[in-house]
2-oxoacid-dependent dioxygenase (Selaginella moellendorffii), 239 residues
Amino acid sequence: MYGKCSSLPDAWSVFHDLVHKNAFSCNIMISTLCANGQSAQAIHLFLALASDSVVRPTHVSFVAAKRVLGLFSESLGLESGALEEAFEGERHAMRMNYYPPCPEPELTILDAHADPNGFTILQQDTRVKDGLQIVHCGAWVPIKPLPGAFVVNIGDQLQVLSNDAYKSVEHRAVVNSERTRVSIASFYGPAEDSHIALLAQMVADEAPACFKDSVYGNYLQLFYASKLDGKAAIETVRY
Ligand code: OGA
Ligand code: NI
């Protein structure tokens, strides 16, 4: 089914079918660093990536996200439903990133940022070894894609809710001069009108509350105003 898309509208309708057939509703954004006219090629690649993978991206955002959330709760020593409650009215979004080869790769980059949401399940392109990089011990480290595996990036809201027990990961994406790279990011976060307050269970004498309450929609505005400036956004809600 995927190989038959010969034009952009065709590819779109296939993708929409896929989403609707599974009775999923999610926002899909396409992000490309390419010139107009290359989007059709980008969509072909996304569809190939989706059909190749063991788990479809649509499944990723809805099934895996819930499981991951339960595991996060448990690893914090909380009831398995604790975070799920905090993300009530959850919001899923999916972004498909397309990075064509660039003759001057050092000039083209998805700037350093931490995702503003709860967490992100990222499906990488196994053909390209150096794309996603994270800050680890003060240095940029490549996260090599493993076939059949996803990367889970912790976002700012998990850091807030866990009162700094989890740290959102600062990351960026680099391009190369030889190969196109694609990635599919499934974002899991609260609804925009959600009131985010760190979990009372995470506060103790040795761990005083370190984040102010916020409304997620306002936080997002702040995040976008900070124009992907590393971890600047979360500092605006720190006491
Ligand atoms: C993102 C992101 C990384 C990648 O979409 O927020 O960080 O590898 N993408 O494309
Ligand atoms: Ni990101």
In short: The pocket of N-oxalylglycine (ligand 1) is lined by residues 95, 97, 110, 115, 122, 131-132, 171, 173, 183, 185 (CB under 6 Å).
